[in-house]
Design goal:
Layout lengths: L6 E2 L9 H7 L9 H18 L5 E5 L2 H12 L5 E6 L2 H12 L3 E6 L8 H10 L3 E7 L1 E2 L4 E2 L2 H11 L3 E5 L11 H4 L3 E5 L10 E6 L1 H9 L9 H9 L9 H17 L1 H21 L15 E4 L6 H12 L1 E2 L1 E2 L9 E4 L6 H17 L8 H17 L1
Parallel strand pairs: 1-12, 3-4, 3-5, 5-8, 8-9
Antiparallel strand pairs: 2-10, 6-7, 9-10, 11-14, 13-14
Helix pairs in contact: 1-10, 2-10, 5-6, 10-11, 11-13, 11-14, 12-13, 13-14
The chain binds pyridoxal-5'-phosphate (PLP).
Family: Belongs to the class-V pyridoxal-phosphate-dependent aminotransferase family.
Pfam family, one: Aminotran_5
Organism: Halobacillus mangrovi
């Protein structure tokens, strides 16, 4: 039996609300029956505000990467020129998918821990001949940077006909995105991060210009053909057997978000970000990302006086607090705290207090109690600002 008291604070998978777990335990239904049709028809319009769009949000069975791949294969053909922002492991994954599908890829390499600027995208866009799409990550989970995707999209749209395609796997459901207003054409996401579900569902939100590209695109595709998903959705169906239990859960996730209010959901994430960062500063823990570039769903810390892996090991073994390490060249250099989805200020108060104990043990220099004082103050200030 697994420990049931773990405090899971990785940036995905994330904890599941009890009411969502119960919803997923409902008896199985037939996927071509009336009940499934009603469920799909009920969910479809409620997903749209989460993505800030009036367009369709398609639901696929697969991990987040299947949605990234769907975005690439449906909008491009071999030889197309595309621009990919690479500022971490997930930007790199988008670029790798584009290369795998034989696109002519211009990478914009950004230092890990920094956000891309509108000017950087603008200059590559102007040097490209006929860019078909700009791919970028909303929250770069490997560093905890939130890229200014809306500003980038607005500028790209002023300068070109290029599509703007965003990986929102670790932001959607936790951070606001206004797809329609900013001109973002396509946003993909997954279920196991801020969407409070187990892994297994992938989401693809598609705007009008993206549909034009998808409908004209002759590249062969089968399981990931978005045209088929869209056609079937209009009939209250999915092309293949959907992950029904996860759909039961998604229905409840959307109900929870509606009950709290989407704006409040996003503000709660901002509060958790402010609390975590204030406590880190008070405990002399170097933050990898500047305040301006930091994500509201994940915070990275780059310790200099102790080993990040040793901290993670103690947190896990003694307290059941599960944190993430660094990826690729940042392995061992940073640790990452996920504060997204079914995560609340009460959880932040708890993990900061645990970190204080461990930091003392590791001999990290800071004044006892400073982290706890700062996290409480940040919470109280956050609440004041909201009033
Ligand atoms: C987690 C994540 C992915 C990959 O999702 P999988 O479900 O592991 O395939 C892609 N992009 C970002 C930004 C992520 O955080």
């Amino acid at each position: 039996m697994k420990r049931e008291w773990d405090l899971l604070h990785t940036p995905g998978p994330t904890p599941i609300p009890p009411s969502v777990e119960r919803a997923m335990n409902q008896p199985m239904i037939g996927h071509r029956g009336q009940k499934c049709k009603e469920l799909l028809k009920d969910i479809a319009p409620r997903l749209k505000p989460v993505f800030g769009t009036s367009g369709e949000v398609l639901v696929l069975t697969g991990s987040g990467t299947s949605a990234l791949e769907a975005a690439v294969v449906n909008t491009t053909q071999p030889g197309d020129e595309v621009i990919v922002v690479v500022a971490g492991a997930f930007g790199d994954r988008f670029a790798q998918i584009c290369e795998t599908y034989e696109l002519n890829v211009h990478r914009i390499d950004v230092e890990w821990g920094k956000a891309v600027t509108v000017e950087q995208v603008e200059s590559v866009l102007q040097s490209a001949e006929e860019p078909k799409a700009v791919f970028l990550t909303h929250c770069e989970t490997s560093t905890g940077v939130m890229h200014p995707v809306e500003k980038v999209a607005e500028r790209v749209k002023q300068l070109s006909d290029s599509l703007v395609i965003v990986d929102g796997v670790s932001s959607i459901g936790g951070a606001k995105i206004d797809m329609d207003r900013s001109g973002i054409d396509l946003v993909v996401s997954g279920s196991q991060k801020a969407m409070m579900l187990p892994p297994g569902l992938a989401f693809v939100a598609v705007g009008d210009q993206a549909w034009e590209a998808i409908n004209q695109n002759e590249r062969p595709r089968f399981y990931l053909d978005l045209k088929t998903y869209n056609k079937r959705l209009s009939e209250g169906q999915t092309p293949f057997t959907p992950a029904l239990s996860l759909l039961f859960g998604l229905d409840e996730v959307l109900r929870l978000m509606e009950e709290e209010g989407l704006e409040q959901v996003f503000e709660r994430h901002q509060t958790m970000k402010a609390m975590t960062r204030a406590a880190a500063e008070a405990m002399n823990l170097p933050l990898l990302v500047s305040e301006e570039d930091a994500s509201s769903t994940v915070t990275s810390i780059k310790p200099t006086t102790f080993d990040a892996e040793e901290l993670r090991k103690t947190a896990n073994e003694e307290f059941g607090l599960i944190l993430a390490g660094g990826q690729k060249h940042m392995k061992g250099e940073i640790f990452r705290i996920g504060h997204m989805g079914y995560s609340r200020p009460a959880d932040v108060l708890r993990y900061i207090s645990i970190l204080e104990v461990i930091l003392k043990r590791l001999g990290h220099p800071f004044e006892s109690g400073k982290g706890s004082a700062a996290v409480q103050e940040a919470y109280l200030n956050g609440i004041k600002e909201l009033k």
